[in-house]
Design a protein that fits this description.
Distance between the termini: 91 Å
Order of helices and strands: HHEHHEEHEEHHEEH
Helix content: 55-70%
Structural class: alpha+beta
Strand order of the largest sheet: 2-4-5-7-6
Number of helices: 8
Length: 280
């Protein structure tokens, strides 16, 4: 190898070492930021729970005040549980350990349950946002999907909408779409996303910012987890947004029904069991 070739090789190695060092620094900074964010988001509801629990020791507290304290403890406990669940889900998705458990999902029942649960969340309740469920089909319409994960995805999107919406409404629902699919949506009248947020909105630990530049509470895992779950369920997720135009998040899932053969087998199996039972 010539002297000139050795020189070029050494320069290449030096550049690679410099890039590696810069990458390590970025990773260390990111790790520190993530740990700081996690610590802050866990301590905030924990401090609230401890504080309100201490207030309950006051025997002279009025019944109305006592109920308010209990409501706050419940609310912050649910918030803390959500943070822990998101951290576990993010880890399981990364390692590929999440398993789907498909069953009949009656979509209107899911919308009704979500309406009851999310209207009591802190952002929606305090801001007095109008929450509306939009049902695309009759009550007997269902798809085969993981019930828990489908609810989780919609809950995350509604919760995210509540963080960025100061007034107005949030709509969520579904409709049948082409290709034997169902399209789910969550729309809000919030301030929308800035252009800089559009490319990395689904990245883990991206909490986003308001148009004024203020950070938004949370770990920034909800959208990342939701998109990963949708893709795991053979669907896709996207969003439409713009500054001061609100945000709309969509995702599709395939309409998978039981085959005629499986239905026939189950019907015959049921008849056989009844016939055998009648012999005894």
């Amino acid at each position: 190898m010539s002297t000139e070739e050795n020189k070029k090789l050494l320069q290449t190695i030096a550049m690679l070492e410099e890039e590696l060092s810069a990458t390590r620094t970025r990773m260390q900074n990111l790790q520190s930021a993530i740990l700081s964010n996690i610590s802050h988001d866990i301590r905030t509801p924990m401090n609230a729970i401890v504080g309100f629990a201490n207030l309950l020791t006051d025997e002279k507290m009025e019944p109305g005040e006592r109920k308010d304290c209990i409501d706050h403890i419940n609310s912050h406990s649910i918030e803390l549980l959500g943070i822990i669940d998101n951290m576990i889900d993010a880890s399981q998705l990364q390692s590929g350990n999440i398993r789907l458990n498909d069953r009949e999902c009656y979509l209107n029942d899911i919308l009704d349950a979500l309406h009851e649960e999310t209207r009591e969340t802190q952002d929606i309740k305090q801001k007095k946002l109008n929450l509306a469920a939009v049902k695309g089909e009759d009550d007997d319409f269902f798809i085969y999907a993981d019930y828990k994960r489908l609810k989780q995805i919609l809950y995350n999107l509604i919760d995210n909408a509540g963080k960025f919406t100061k007034k107005g409404h949030i709509q969520f629902g579904y409709y049948k779409s082409k290709g034997n699919k169902v399209t789910f949506f969550v729309r809000d009248t919030g301030e929308g996303l800035g252009l800089l947020d559009n490319d990395d909105i689904f990245m883990p630990f991206n909490t986003g910012k308001t148009l004024a530049g203020a950070p938004v509470k949370g770990l920034g895992l909800g959208l990342s987890i939701s998109k990963s779950l949708v893709e795991l369920m053979s669907g896709e997720m996207w969003h439409e947004s713009g500054p001061c135009k609100g945000s709309s998040f969509y995702f599709t899932l395939p309409v998978r029904k039981r085959t005629f053969l499986k239905n026939t087998y189950q019907h015959l199996s049921s008849l056989a069991k009844r016939n055998i039972a009648s012999l005894f």
